[in-house]
Design brief:
Layout: E1 3-9, H1 15-28, E2 32-39, H2 43-48, E3 59-63, H3 72-80, E4 88-93, H4 100-107, E5 119-125, H5 136-141, E6 148-152, H6 159-172, E7 177-180, E8 211-215, H7 222-231, E9 238-243, E10 252-256, E11 262-266, E12 276-280, H8 286-299
Parallel strand pairs: 1-4, 1-5, 2-3, 2-4, 5-6, 6-7
Antiparallel strand pairs: 8-12, 9-10, 9-12, 10-11
Helix pairs in contact: 7-8
Length: about 300
């Protein structure tokens, strides 16, 4: 039978980094991964970043829907149509605002018998855990029915801070195993059992956020990317995009995480949707995005 593993966690916690790590490890162990990527806006850009690891036919992008409620039927249909493979394993990366408790509850109904009951892995950014203000409830919801919790962003964290976060996680989820990414045992991961932890009540609407995307022209410099990201409201918790710099042939992928850090790296290939600027969080609107682009193109 084939394991289904959902990966959840707050925006910028490191879900995609974990997924890339798992794909490499499971491929090395002669497994055949299939991945489903969910995001509010243009999951196809994210999907293209995996094509140097696995074939595009083993990647499915699911955009514009909330897979913890309105998009669950589409998600089930995608899962049930996954081709049978020898040593198959399926990964689902949920968007960073998913109601993780609802997701695992709804996904467990209507799945073909060839799949094991889905299990959930939560990614926790130790540096920013429960520093989300009004979004703390959502972040704590995302670990309560997980079988495994992966700790990330540990480089600049004190031993005291790490111990404090682990203590709080154990209060919220008494049964989950808590480890770092380098401690993952690929052989045991598919054998994890679904969590039997009881989740606290969560207001589902807190998982529904504004999002939008606009076309992004070629930019004059890397500095212009930073300026656009920094000029967008702080209420927008996730900024990402893909574009070209001047007349360079290659594309650049960039993102601003909830803590304000901006990361820029080469993009794998040519974006099938064209160059885009995308945002998630309160204040996301095409007018705001286009204004930020216009102002910073003028100032360069």
């Amino acid at each position: 039978m084939e394991a289904i593993i959902t990966i959840v966690g707050f925006l910028g916690a490191g879900k995609t980094t974990l997924l890339k790590y798992l794909i490499d490890k499971f491929t090395e162990a002669n497994h055949n991964p299939f991945i489903i990527l969910n995001d509010y806006e243009n999951a196809y850009i994210d999907a293209q970043q995996f094509t140097n690891q696995i074939q595009s036919k083993s990647i499915k992008a699911l955009s514009g829907s909330c897979i913890c409620c309105s998009g669950i039927v589409e998600l089930r249909n995608i899962v049930n149509r996954i081709p049978e493979r020898e040593n198959g394993i399926t990964f689902i990366e949920a968007n960073g605002t998913s109601d993780a408790c609802s997701l695992i509850e709804f996904l467990g109904v209507g799945i073909n018998e060839r799949f094991l009951p889905p299990i959930q892995i939560s990614v926790v950014d130790v540096k920013n855990w429960q520093k989300r203000g009004e979004h703390n409830d959502l972040e704590s919801n995302q670990i309560q029915v997980s079988s495994l919790i992966i700790l990330t962003h540990l480089n600049t964290i004190s031993t005291k801070r790490k111990a404090k976060v682990i203590h709080e996680l154990k209060i919220l989820n008494t049964s989950a195993k808590i480890i770092t990414m380098d401690a993952i045992d690929v052989a045991l991961l598919p054998k994890l059992l679904p969590s039997n932890n009881t989740a606290q009540k969560f207001e589902h609407l807190k998982a529904h956020w504004a999002s939008c995307s606009v076309d992004l022209p070629n930019l004059p410099s890397i500095k212009c990317i930073n300026n656009i990201c920094n000029s967008l409201p702080k209420s927008i918790l996730r900024v990402k995009g893909c574009t070209q710099i001047n007349q360079e042939q290659g594309y650049i992928y960039f993102e601003r995480k909830p803590d304000g850090e901006i990361h820029i790296r080469p993009f794998n290939g040519v974006p099938i949707t064209g160059s885009k600027l995308l945002t998630i969080g309160p204040g996301s609107s095409p007018a705001i995005l286009n204004k930020a682009i216009e102002i910073n193109l003028k100032t360069k």
